[in-house]
Design brief:
This protein is of the alpha+beta class. The protein has three domains: about 10-255, Rossmann fold (3-Layer(aba) Sandwich); about 265-285 and about 305-365, Phosphorylase Kinase, domain 1 (2-Layer Sandwich); about 370-590 and about 635-645, Aminoglycoside phosphotransferase (APH), C-terminal lobe (Aminoglycoside 3'-phosphotransferase, Chain: A, domain 2, Alpha-Beta Complex), CATH 3.90.1200.10. It is globular. It starts with 7 loop residues before the first strand and ends with a strand.
Length: about 700
C-alpha cells in the first residue's frame, strides 16, 4: 500500500543558520528549568536538520555544521545531568564556522520522524550510551535523524564528532557506497545510530556490513536504536545476519523518562506544575487502550492502528483526569501547541493546560461522550453545522505552503495503486479517466492545514456542545497526505458520516469557502483509497484481527468500488437520497469581518483572538439585514434554504442531476475521458462536448 512519505522542505541555508542563532540568543535569556531544556533540545534538532541538509548536498560546510550539533549535544547532556539547572554555551567559534561558504541554493531538510511522531527523545540515547564502556569509540549516524542522535551518543561516550552516512537504494534493501578510509580501525568500538529499525532494518545493516567488510570484528560493532523489537517483516536473510553480528542497545523512553530514577526526568513531574500531584502512576492509554475509557453503543468501537497512534497517558489528580499526549519535540511541538490554543480559543477543542517538552496536557472530558457513528435528528443537524464552522475556521486560519502535502498526481498514483492492490487492475483503470485533469486540479488546489481525521470517534458531544479531538497534528503526520485543500476534509466528513447531497451542501455553505467541485469529487476518491490502504496496512501488521478495523476496511472498499464503478465522482452505495434534487447549489457564505486571520510564524494567537473578539463586538453593534421568512418561521432566502428560488439548468445526457443540485459538482465525463470528443472529432453526447458532467459528491 502507498501510505507513508517523508516530509521534505527546501530552505535557504543562511536563513536556517539565522534561525538557529536567534534560538540560541533566546535560550540565554530563559531561566533554568524544563522549558529552557526543551528549547535547547529544539535547537539540537534544528542543527541536526541543518547538518543533514548540508551533508546530503555534499557541501564543504557540512563538517562545521556537524561540529555545531556535537556542541549542542554536550549542552543538552549538561542540562539533563544537572536536572535542567545548567546548560553551558555553544562556543562562538563553532557557530561562526558554520557561516563560511554556505550554499546559495536551498538545501533539502527532512523532518526527523521520531522527534515529530514517535516520542523518540535524544536524552534516551544519551542514557543508553552511558551504559557502555570502551577505551575509544567511533560513532556513525544515519541521516536524517541520526545526526542529532549520534551526537548524543558521542556525548554519552565522551567521543569526538560523529560522521554521518546516507545508505541508498530500495527501502527494503539499502546499500552504502562510502569510502572505507573514513573508518578509524584503531577505535576500540563502533557505534551505528538511527531510529527504528523499520520494516526491513536494512539501513543499519548497510552500515554494519560496510564496517564488517572493512575488517571490523563483530564484537566491536554496536547498534543504537529506538526499540528492541529488531527488524520487521521485510528484513532479508542478509540483514538478519548483520543484525546478529551487532550488539543492539535500545534507547528506552520508559527507562529514561517514565521510570527514571531521577525525579526531574520523569514525565509525571513535568506535568505536576500544571495539574497538581498525581494520585496514581500515569496510565498508558496508547495503542487503542483509550477505547476502554469511553462508553459507546455496541458495535461502534473505533478501529485502532497502534503504529499510527501518538504516545498518550491518563493522569489522575485531585483536580480531575488529564490527557497527556505527545505532539512533537522542538519547534514542531511548539507550532502544534499554538494550533491547539487557536482552536480552543475559537471553541472547537478543549483548552490545553500547557506544553511539557513534547507533551500537551489537557483535561480528559469525562463530561462528554463520543459522537455516535450515525447521529440522527437534532444532533445530526447540529453536527453538520459544526463541521462546516470548524472546517471553515481551519481554512481561514491555517494556510499551508504549496509544498506542504502530496501533489495531486501523487494522490492519484496512491489511489490507483491502492485500488489495484485491493480491488484489482480492472477497477483501478477507472482512475485513468482522471489523469488528463490532474494539472487543472493542481491549479485549483489551495492548501491549508487540513484536519485529516474526520471519523466519528474524533468528536465528543453532550447537550448542545460538540468538540473535536486530535485536531492539531495529522496534517503533519508520517503519511503521504499532508496539507491538502479544504475539499479533503469535506470529502472525509461526507464519507465518515454518510452525508446526503443536501447535508454536504449545508456543510459547505457554512464553511464560507466553496472548493472546486471536480477537486471535491477527486478528493473523495483519494480519501477512500487512502483510508482503505491504511486499514489494510494495519491488518497486515496485526498479530490478532481487530473486528472494527475489518469492518472499516469493508466499508471503505464497498464505497470505493461503487464510486469507481460509476462516472468519476459519483456517489457510493451508502449515499442517502436527497429530497431536493432540483434545488440549486448554495453560494458559500462570505467571510465575516471577525474571522481569524491567517496565522503566520511568530504571530501571537492570543492577541489575534483578542482582536477577533473586538471585531465581532463591533460587527454585532451594526444593524443586520433580516431575511424574509415564510409562514412557519423558516428562512427562504438565507443560509437555511440557500438558492431555493433559482431555476435549475437543464441536465446533459451524462449528468447524474441537474447542474446546481446540492451535493453535486463538475466531474470528468467518463465516456470521453474529459476530451469532449469521441471517435476523434464527434462531440461526446454525454457531456455535449464540454468534457465535464454534473456528478454527486455526497455519500459514504
Amino acid at each position: 500500500m502507498l501510505i507513508y512519505a517523508d516530509a521534505v522542505r527546501h530552505e535557504d541555508a543562511a536563513a536556517v543558520l539565522a534561525r538557529l542563532r536567534r534560538c540560541l540568543r533566546e535560550l540565554a535569556l530563559l531561566p533554568p528549568g524544563l522549558a529552557r531544556h526543551s528549547r535547547l533540545v529544539g535547537a539540537l534538532i534544528e542543527a541536526g536538520e541543518f547538518a543533514q541538509g548540508l551533508a546530503d548536498a555534499q557541501h564543504v560546510s557540512a563538517d562545521a555544521a556537524m561540529a555545531l550539533v556535537r556542541a549542542l549535544a554536550e549542552c543538552c547532556a549538561l542540562s539533563w545531568d544537572s536536572d535542567f539547572e545548567h546548560d553551558g554555551s555553544v562556543p562562538a567559534a563553532t557557530l561562526a564556522a558554520c557561516a563560511h561558504r554556505l550554499p546559495r541554493e536551498p538545501i533539502a531538510l527532512k523532518r526527523p520522524e521520531g522527534y515529530a511522531y514517535y516520542a523518540l527523545y535524544p536524552e534516551s540515547y544519551l542514557e543508553a550510551a552511558r551504559q557502555l564502556r570502551a577505551p575509544s569509540w567511533q560513532v556513525f549516524g544515519i541521516r536524517s535523524i541520526g545526526t542529532g542522535l549520534a551526537a548524543m551518543v558521542a556525548a554519552g561516550f565522551g567521543a569526538g564528532c560523529p560522521s554521518t552516512l546516507r545508505p541508498g537504494g530500495h527501502p527494503f534493501a539499502r546499500q552504502l557506497a562510502a569510502d572505507a578510509g573514513a573508518i578509524d580501525m584503531h577505535a576500540a568500538a563502533f557505534a551505528v545510530v538511527d531510529e527504528g529499525p523499520g520494516l526491513s532494518g536494512s539501513s543499519m545493516a548497510a552500515v554494519g556490513r560496510w564496517l564488517l567488510d572493512a575488517g571490523v570484528a563483530p564484537a566491536r560493532l554496536h547498534f543504537f536504536v529506538g526499540h528492541a523489537n529488531g527488524p520487521g517483516a521485510m528484513a532479508s536473510a542478509d540483514v538478519h545476519a548483520v543484525w546478529r553480528c551487532a550488539q543492539v542497545h535500545a534507547a528506552s523512553f520508559e527507562q529514561a523518562i517514565l521510570r527514571s530514577k531521577r525525579s526531574a526526568h520523569r514525565l509525571e513531574n513535568w506535568i505536576a506544575p500544571l495539574v497538581g500531584p498525581l494520585r496514581a502512576p500515569l496510565q498508558d492509554i496508547s495503542g487503542g487502550r483509550w477505547r476502554g475509557l469511553q462508553s459507546r453503543p455496541a458495535g461502534e468501537a473505533p478501529p485502532v492502528h497502534p503504529a499510527w497512534e501518538r504516545r498518550k497517558f491518563l493522569a489522575e489528580t485531585a483536580n480531575g483526569r488529564w490527557l497527556v499526549k505527545f505532539i512533537g519535540l522542538g519547534r514542531e511541538g511548539e507550532r502544534k501547541y499554538l494550533r491547539a490554543k487557536a482552536l480552543a480559543a475559537a471553541g472547537f477543542v478543549t483548552l490545553p493546560a500547557g506544553l511539557c517538552h513534547g507533551f500537551v496536557v489537557e483535561r480528559w472530558r469525562d463530561d462528554l461522550l463520543p459522537m455516535p457513528a450515525r447521529p440522527v435528528g437534532d444532533l445530526r443537524s447540529r453536527l453538520i453545522e459544526r463541521l462546516g464552522d470548524y472546517l471553515g475556521f481551519r481554512a481561514r486560519s491555517f494556510p499551508a505552503s504549496d509544498s506542504a502535502g502530496a501533489s495531486v498526481r501523487t494522490l492519484w498514483e496512491m489511489g490507483r495503486f491502492n485500488t489495484e492492490a485491493v480491488l484489482g487492475a480492472a477497477l483501478a483503470a477507472a482512475w485513468d479517466a482522471w489523469e488528463p485533469a490532474l494539472e487543472r486540479l493542481s491549479r485549483a488546489l489551495r492548501r491549508i492545514e487540513t484536519d485529516n481525521r474526520m471519523q466519528s470517534w474524533e468528536w465528543l458531544t453532550a447537550g448542545t456542545l460538540i468538540l473535536k479531538t486530535d485536531a492539531v497534528d495529522h496534517h503533519a503526520a508520517h503519511d503521504l497526505v499532508g496539507c491538502q485543500d479544504l475539499a479533503w476534509d469535506i470529502a472525509g466528513a461526507a464519507v465518515e458520516f454518510e452525508l446526503s447531497g443536501d447535508e454536504v451542501a449545508r456543510m459547505v455553505a457554512r464553511c464560507g469557502r466553496l472548493p472546486d467541485p471536480a477537486l471535491l469529487c477527486f478528493s473523495r476518491l483519494c480519501y477512500l483509497a487512502f483510508e482503505l490502504g491504511r486499514c489494510h496496512e494495519a491488518m497486515a501488521g496485526a498479530a490478532v484481527a481487530d473486528p472494527p478495523m475489518l469492518a472499516a476496511a469493508a466499508r471503505y472498499e464497498e464505497a470505493l468500488h461503487a464510486a469507481l464503478s460509476s462516472p468519476p465522482g459519483a456517489t457510493a452505495t451508502h449515499r442517502k437520497t436527497s429530497d431536493s434534487g432540483t434545488a440549486s447549489a448554495p453560494a458559500p457564505r462570505s467571510a465575516q469581518a471577525g474571522d481569524v486571520a491567517s496565522m503566520a510564524p511568530g504571530v501571537d494567537m492570543e492577541e489575534q483572538q483578542k482582536q477577533q473578539g473586538q471585531s465581532q463586538q463591533q460587527q454585532q453593534q451594526q444593524p443586520r439585514a433580516v431575511p424574509p421568512v415564510d409562514e412557519d418561521g423558516s428562512s427562504v432566502a438565507g443560509e437555511e434554504d440557500p438558492g431555493a428560488a433559482i431555476e435549475p439548468k437543464a441536465p446533459k445526457a451524462g449528468d447524474e442531476a441537474p447542474p446546481g443540485t446540492p451535493g453535486t459538482g463538475e466531474g470528468i465525463c467518463r465516456r470521453c475521458g474529459g476530451s469532449g470528443r469521441i471517435s476523434g472529432s464527434e462531440p461526446c453526447p454525454d457531456c455535449g462536448g464540454t468534457g465535464h458532467v454534473t456528478v454527486g459528491i455526497g455519500g459514504a
